[in-house]
Amino acid sequence: MKTYHKINRAMDSSVDGTVDIISSMPQEILHHILSFIPTQFAIRTSALSRGWRHIWCHTPFLDFDCSYIHGHRRQLTARDINQTIRSYRSPKVTSFHLSMSRNIREHEINSWIEFVLSRNVEKLSLVLDGLPNDHVLEKIFFLSSSLTQLCIRNFDMIAVVSWKSLRNLTLGECNLNDESIPNILSGSPVLETLELDYCRGPQRLDLSKSRSLRRLVIYLRKEPTEIVAPHLHYLSLESFNDGPCTLVDVSSLAEARIHIVVDNYSPPLNLNFLQTMVLKLLAKLQNVKRLTFTGTVLQILSLVELRGVPFPTFKVETLTVETRFTRSVIPGLARLLQNSPELEKLIAHATRLFGIPDRDLDRYMDSESLNPDECWRSKYEIFPTLLEFGSVMSCKDGTWKLMASFMEMVMRNVKRLETLVVGLECNKPKGSDARWFEELLQMLQSLSNNNNNTHSVSQNYSIDAHLWNLPDAILHFILSAIPTKPTIKTSVLSKRWRHVWCETPSLSLDTHRVTINIDSCLLSFVILVSGITIFLMAFTPILLSMPPEILHHILSFIRTQYAIRTSVLSRGWRHVWCETPFLDFDCFHRYGIRRQLTAQDISQTLILYRAPKITSCHLRMPRNLREHEMNSWIEFVVSRNVEKLSLFFDCYPNHVFEKIFYLSSSLKQLCIWHCDMMIPGCTVSLKSLRKLKLWDCHLYDESVANILSGSPVLETLRLDYCTGPQRLDLSKSPSLRRLKILWCPGPTEIVAPHVHYLSLSNSSEPPPTLVDVSSLTEASIDIIDSVNLCRLLNADFLQTMVLKMLAKLQNVKRLTFTGPILEILSLAELHGVPFPTFKVETLTVETNFTRYVIPGLARLLQNSPELKMLIAHAGYQVGIQDRDLDRYMDSEGLNRDECWRSKYEVFPTSLEFCRMIRCKDEMWKLMASFMEMVIRNVKTLETLVVGLEYVVNPTDGHDFISSLPDAILHLILSSIPTKSAIRTSALSKRWRHVWSETPSLSIDSHRVVARSINKTLSTFSSPKVATFHLRTCLANRIQHVDTWIEFAVNRHAEKLSLEFRDTRVRDYDFPDSFYANSTVKELLIESGSVVMKPKRDVSWTSLKSLSLSYCKLSDDALVKILSGCPLLESLELMFCDEFRCLDLSRSPRVVRLEIDRSDWFLGPTEIVAPHVHCLRLRHSRLPCRLVDVSCLKEANLNIYFCDLGTLTGDFLQGNVVKMLAKLQNVEKLTVGATFLQMLSLAALCDVRFPTLKVECLTLETMIVRSVVPGITRLLQNSPALRKLTIHTVKCSIISEAHLNSYLRSHSLNQRQCWRSKDTAFPGSMETISMLVGKYAESNLVASFVERLLRSTRSLETMVVLLVGYLDASGFEELVAMATRLSHKRNVFISIKQSHVQNVSNTFS
Fold it and tell me: Are 246 and 227 in contact (CB under 8 A)?
């Protein structure tokens, strides 16, 4: 009786009203689901509903098994496959599997293979069981460029192939001749994995010509007998007992698995032959780090051990054995462990693999005159035979004894073992209770504690044994079968289980008997399928409760055509998509989409669209589109004030934009792809455009000029693959800061005086000439087409390339060069071309560490005296070929051997580098040589970053940090305190003495006893200390402190820092040896207890930087110190007392001076510094006179006081205005808020101001009315001012009450003084309340900026850094106001928000 199952075609709702979640998923997800079942079952889904009718035929996976289908009534026929292929619609086939039967013709198979190859199949599996061996496939099969994985069985591989993308190849039971393997390897340049399953073919398998091949898996019976694979990293070899195999060359091997299959139906075992073969194999595996042996190999090794044959020594770190714990295995395993001195991890799987029978072993031992009883019973009697093993493992006591004996044997034969993992494949022991496995673990734990090693035991019936190691997909499948509440409880098992439950693609919530927070649970629950995030439709009530802005933000991540589908979820979703301010129409054909998006679809969507504003619009034009339709769409989004617009004209390069497009005032970002008619028919007016990207467009001189003139706030311009003007003039775009040019035939000249960042990647012609890039701070230069570059290599090109381009990059702070640039610089260096001097601080090089790069890089480092950071990225970078460089050197009469061997022989050529980067040891040597070269050629470097690509996998267990040279480890440890560095000595023997040789000591002894510090210094073995930092208290430690300071002096410390924070000790003086130190270069002393009283002459002959804080320093002591520092360049005196006159006239090298004074620490009253270039002075109300600062170029001034009780006109005249008179020649001036208030009082009192030559002025102040008169007068008296920077900081200023009191004492009307012009600006208390509440109006800042602009005539740039004044909306309003002021005053204005709360003490 037949049973018919009725299919419910109305799947929109089920009986209980739930929603069909699977049908609402995107088609990519449905295709992924159908890829897990055969095609004939996927076809059956077409009967579910109309929506499922054509889904199977778009799935890029085809699986036809014509042999036998379980549960199916008949076998799949050729007619079924032909009919399926005729209905198939997917343009691409990702995977195709075909298993043959005997009733299929050859031409049909060829037609199917041709079909999938024409669809660019990537994974192809062919099982040709039913075909004759002489069957020949079509030529297209051997010339497929899309194949990445290929598996073929029962086939004769005799043709020449061209599989350019093939990475994995599996051949099963194929007939191979002597030319098959070479043909495959030569035609598969990127082949990585090769698997040969019982193939018949050549006697010698030579893989030496395949450099990309990394994995070889081979199952052999007789052929091949020799394997040559010098580039292999992984080898799995399974051989029969009568199939000899020799490893000729496997020098790069890092992991191997060896298994010998015993054929009991073959002739009697030749164990002598097997021993010889295994020993030869082991000799080739000495350097392998990870080894796996099966029971048969271990049995053969046991025979070798009993005969007394010597074993090789292995460097294996992880050893895996798959065997039973029998007495015929243990001798070989024990000897193997003894000969593995570096072994760290042992994994033993007690499997049921068959080995050599005991009778064959006994027969062989009898033939060799070996007594089996004496051999086994002496040491290995406790281990069972092969027949006894099963009964032992079924008994609790037997298992205990066997496990303990095995552990003891391992511990007795290995010394460095850290981890032991044992896996058991056996039934639960008879008579054991529930605690059997726990008792075994406790026994092993005690054994682990006795031997200081780590053990783990796993068994298949124990939950804790194997579940922990299962993949996430299996754990998700297990948890999906139980309710969600119990699955959440698994998160407390371990860290491994913490987040497993929340990634399970199944929810089962029962809220009748339990109260849980479903909202928070569901909102955080997301299923990740194929990289697409899908919110379950059950979340609809929760999502609808969110604000519309959040729903719009969610829909902005998907295309508009998918967002429209959400309208069918419920009534609440019906109009959400049409109010989303994001539109994304991509009409390009995508795989898995049933039909292409048409112009009618887009027009209908725009008719239903309701959002009054469009934030972002992406439009990729469809085919067969009329031009008026494109213009109507663009006009629609422009009329909705679109801000971000991307237009792709793949099929319409000659499209002409309408006038409204060039007059959009809302556009901020614009990207245009493939447009040849960028010819504005009107004056462009893109007033808000900040970023412009043109890709594959043709530009004209007039078009570029019109676009730039109509984009006044344009900040970023990117030209990719564009053709157009020969001269790119950006001089009339003062707001443009970033310029990126990639693969553009033109321009040949670039004029960009305002650009800060330039990225230039040229391909076909010489790089363009940089006419004017005076404001450049960061640049990246690259030449991509090295073949064309070789044609241009000549002396004139070197002069143009090196001198003209590099001369324009002298002032750049951050530079990036690639390999071809450095190779050209090397040729210029060898040719004797002079290099300019650079001011670069951060240099990035993207190149290989070859000898053709090092000369240019070394010269570049030598000519960068201010370099602080070097970043080197090494990998497979494409550069000029070695033969072209050698050919050029021969043409110039340069001897190659003399040029390279003199200094750079240690560095490899390009071909040698590709080989070395795969070898760990050689790569570390190369890195050490590179670092030595860098350190030798640069003096000011602080940070060195080296990035490596395609290096040996770091998961191979090797400690890369410990392999670094000592110099690098010392550099690492010098950046942490000495207390932490000492702890590294416990890591390993390698680290035991590293800290004591680090030339840096940083000791903080507030909580450490003096005895511990003395012990540390006595253990310190480095003969020289580069940096010595000591922070301690002086109470009861003065004698120890003197000893520690003498230690630093005797070890020739170059950087010495001493901090004594103790008020209980007064008038501490250093020992006499402290003042006689010829090696110290930087000295910092901070203490209120130190009195600098040198009893004899000071001799700090190498000192360049001196910083004294809170020290007592007399005039005589200061004279002695300065006379003893002939190389002193920087002097800092922070709140030092007792000296009155600072005379630096006899210190011509001192160029930087920093002084802080207060009412408690008076400091100098007179400063004589005729050679100082930079001065930072924070002084009190007490007078401080600048006697001579004639060479001053940069100054930073402020005053510390708030009380005006003692303020007089003489103070203003003497301390403020006269100080300005001494700064007339200063080019960079920074003034604080209190100093500005003093200038305001001087201006109100009609004190005459001097005329300044300052070009860059920085004001660190709050926006208060009491600073406006002083700023105004300062700007009026600075006719050469070019740049003005305003830091709005919260700082201490004089209160308005004190200022008014001072004005009344001088018979001045305060209302007339303040309210005449400055009524719009608040007082000090009002400003502080604004900073606390952040409710200042943008008009206030704009009025302040406008007031300053009216006071200056020559200003070009104004930078405003706001701290805490405005919120987000106010900041946007201010930016808009600043834009209008910038056009009105013809001044570039930059408005920025900063998180720095107080910058009044910054000084460069």
Answer: yes
Element (H, E) at 1242: helix 1233-1244
Residue holding tokens 């009778």? 359
Three-class SS state of 1190: coil
- Beta carbons of 1363 and 1394 less than 8 angstroms apart: yes
Give mean pLDDT, residues 772-782: 88
Residue among 778, 785, 849 nearest 814 (CA): 778
How far apart CA 172 and CA 158 sit, in angstroms, is: 15
Closest C-alpha to 880, from 856, 917, 910, 846: 910
Name 986's Cβ contacts closer than 8 Å, sequence gap at least 6.
none
More confident position, 93 or 880: 93
Torsion of CA 327, 331, 332, 337, to 10 degrees: 120
Handedness of CA 650, 656, 658, 662 (dihedral sign): positive
Q: CA 817, CA 857: separation in Å to the nearest integer?
A: 10
Strand order in the sheet with 727-729: 727-729, 749-751, 769-772
- The CA distance from 1399 to 1404, in Å, is 12
In single-letter form, the type of residue at position 639 comes to S
Q: Has this prediction a pTM greater than 0.85?
A: no
Query: How far apart are alpha carbons 888 and 306 in whole angstroms?
Result: 66
CB 1245 within 8 A of CB 1269: no
- Contact 972/946 with Cβ under 8 angstroms? no
- pLDDT higher than 60, residue 145: yes
Rounded CA gap, 644 and 582, in Å?
9
464, 497 Cβ separation under 8 angstroms: no
DSSP 77-113: -HHHHHHHHHH---S--SEEEEE--TT--HHHHHHHH
Residue of 336, 328, 333 whose CA lies nearest to 385? 328
> For every residue of 501-514, which 3-state class applies, written as one string?
HHHCCCCCCCCCCC
Q: What is the mean pLDDT of residues 829-837?
A: 80
Taking only the tens place, the pLDDT of each residue in 286-342 is 889 999 988 888 888 888 888 778 888 889 999 999 888 888 888 888 888 988 988
pLDDT band at 478 (very low <50, low <70, confident <90, very high): low
Helix or strand or coil: residue 831?
Answer: helix
Both tokens assigned to 587? 């009409």
Distance, in Å, from the CA atom of 1075 to the CA atom of 596, rounded to the nearest integer, reads 84
What is residue 458's predicted lDDT score, i.e. its pLDDT?
39
Whole-angstrom Cα distance, residue 413 to residue 44? 61
State the Cα–Cα distance between residues 1167 and 1188, nearest whole angstrom: 7
Q: Encode burial over 872-907: b for 16+ CB neighbours within 10 A, e otherwise.
A: bbbeebebbebebbeebbeeeeeeeeebbeeebeeb
Q: How many residues does the chain have?
A: 1404
Alpha helices in 98-191 (DSSP H): 106-118, 180-187
Max CA pair span of the chain: 128
Collect all residues with Cβ–Cβ distance below 8 Å to 1151 and sequence separation of at least 6.
Answer: 1129, 1130, 1171, 1172, 1173, 1174
Q: In the predicted model, what is the mean pLDDT of residues 1226-1231? A: 92
Q: What's the average model confidence in pLDDT over 1148-1158?
A: 86
Give the closest residue to 124 by CA, choosing from 84, 161, 156, 153. Answer: 153
Q: What is the DSSP string of 877-899?
A: -----HHHHHHHHHHTT--HHHH
The pair of structure tokens assigned to 443 is 């026994």
Nearest to 782 by CA among 811, 822, 812, 813: 822
Lowest mean pLDDT, pick from 653-657, 1076-1080, 1081-1085, 1111-1115: 653-657
Nearest by Cα to 741 from 731, 732, 752, 733: 752
Edge-to-edge strands, sheet with 226-228 = 204-206, 226-228, 246-249
> For residues 1237 and 1266, is the Cβ–Cβ distance under 8 A?
yes
Pairing, β 318-322 against β 290-294: parallel
pLDDT number for residue 960: 62
Helix (H) or strand (E) holding 1245: none
